[in-house]
Structure formats: structure tokens, C-alpha cells
User: Fold this.
Amino acid sequence: MNVTAILNDTIASVKGAQFAGIVGTDGLSVAMAYHPAATELDLDVELAELELAELTSRATAAAGRIGAGYMRDLVIETDALLMLATQIIPGYYGVLGVLSEIANLGKARFALQAMIERVRTEL
Assistant:
């Protein structure tokens, strides 16, 4: 199964999921998939992938500077979205964005972890 299919499966499995993807701490997106209805929202979900790549880069650097080790997980909750990032391999993170009004943090984390395990197998 290819990575895009894994990302789309993840979106389909999480109620309210708007996007799933893989980003690098170099600020670039590796792969991204969007829910078909995501374009109807007043959100720039395509910009979200770039911003999440930047956030993972900065959080990784900050954790290293303070001696906390390598960052494994990042959770950002806003009025509109719950965004999660979890390390796949050093320098690369799986990301998931779920509508806040529908989001269940536990289920979203579980789905993201399952996605990452599938991506690791694919790589």
C-alpha cells in the first residue's frame, strides 16, 4: 500500500479529520492528504502542513537546547482544529488535523500512531 492510501485511510477512520500527512523538520511536506470537505472550511489546510513542519522543527530545536531530548509528540489545540504531530523517524513527523468541535484526543492519537506504524512498514 502506498503512503497516500495510508493517509487517506487515516482521514476516513477519524471523525472530523481534515488532513493527514508526513512533514520534515526541514520545513517541507513529504506527503499530505485532505478530506474532500476540507476545502469548504474557512481554513488554509494547505498552509497548515507548512506551519506544522515549521512547528515540529522549532519544537525539536527547543527540546534539544533545553536538554529535554528529542521531541516525539506535539499537540496543538485551537478553536477550529486539534493538530497532532508524532515522530516517525528522526526529522520526520506524521501529522493529523481534526475539527476541534468533534475531536477526541485519545482516538486521534491512536489513529495517528496506527498511521505512523503503517508508514514505517511502507518505508
